[in-house]
Amino acid sequence: MTGLGFKLGALGVIVVLVLGALIGGLYVSASNREIDLRNLITQQEKVREANFDKMWKVISQKAQIPGQYKNDFKEVYTPLIEGRYSGDGQMFMKWIHEHNPQFEGAALYKDLMTSIEGLRESFFQEQKKILSMKKQHDDLLMKFPSCIFVGGRDRIEVKVISSTKTKEIVSSGIEDDVTLFK
Q1: Angle at which helices 3-85 and 105-142 cross, to 10°
Q2: Hey, which bits of the chain come out as E strands?
Q3: Could you report the per-residue pLDDT of 97-150, keeping only the tens digit for each?
Q4: Tens digit of pLDDT for each residue in 23-51?
Q5: What confidence score (pLDDT) does residue 68 get?
Q6: What is the pTM of this model?
Q7: What are the C-alpha distances in Å from 119 to residues 51, 59, 114, 125, 143?
Q8: Which of 123, 130, 135, 139 is nearest to 159 (CA)?
Q9: Cα–Cα distances in angstroms (integers) from residue 109 to residues 62, 79, 82, 106, in the given order
Q10: Nearest Cα to 52, choosing from 136, 99, 121, 139?
Q11: Per-residue pLDDT tens for 47-66?
C-alpha cells in the first residue's frame, strides 16, 4: 500500500470515528434530555398535587373561621350586654356612648377572599409549569435531530385539573353563563 493510499484510508477511518462520536454524542444528549424531562414532569405532578392539597386545606380551614368567630363573639357579647344594661332606664344612651366590641366578619371574609385568589393563582402557575415541560418533552420527541434517537419513546400524558363546568364549556365551545349572582 502506498503512502497516499494509507493516508486516505486513515483519513476515512478518522472521518468514520468522528461521525460515530458525533452521532453517539447526539444520541446520549437527546436521551438524557428526554429522561430529565420525563423525571421533571413526574416530579412537577407531585408538586402540583401538594399545592392543590395545601390550597384546599387552607381555604377550607379559613372558611370555618368566620362562623366560629361569630359564635364566639355572640357567646361573649350577649352576656356582656345583658349584664351591663339590664334594669337600667338609661340603657340606650349608655350603649351609644360606650365603645362596644365589634364583629370583624368583613375582615375575615376579605382575608379568605385574598387567600382563595392567591392560592388559586399559585395552583394555576404549577399547572402552567407542567404543561410547559410537556411541550418541551413533545418537542424533543418530534423535532430533528432528537426525534431520530428518542422519537419512538412514549409521550407523557398530563392531566389538567379542571372543573366539570369548564370541561363542558370546552367540549361544547359555548360559554354564555355570565350572571354573577343568581
Answers
A1: 170
A2: none
A3: 566 566 677 888 888 899 999 999 999 999 999 999 999 999 999 999 999 999
A4: 999 999 999 999 999 999 999 999 999 99
A5: 82
A6: 0.71
A7: 8, 8, 8, 10, 36
A8: 130
A9: 9, 26, 28, 5
A10: 121
A11: 999 999 999 999 999 888 88
**Residue with cell string 434517537:** 149
- Give the Cα separation of 40 and 127 in Å (integer): 13
Residues 100-114 as b/e (b if ≥16 CB within 10 A, e otherwise) read eeeeeeeebeeebee
Cell triple for 94: 349608655
Q: What is the 3-state secondary structure (H, E, C) of 109-143?
A: HHHHHHHHHHHHHHHHHHHHHHHHHHHHHHHHHHC
CA 85 to chain centre: 54
> CA 152, CA 6: separation in Å to the nearest integer?
41
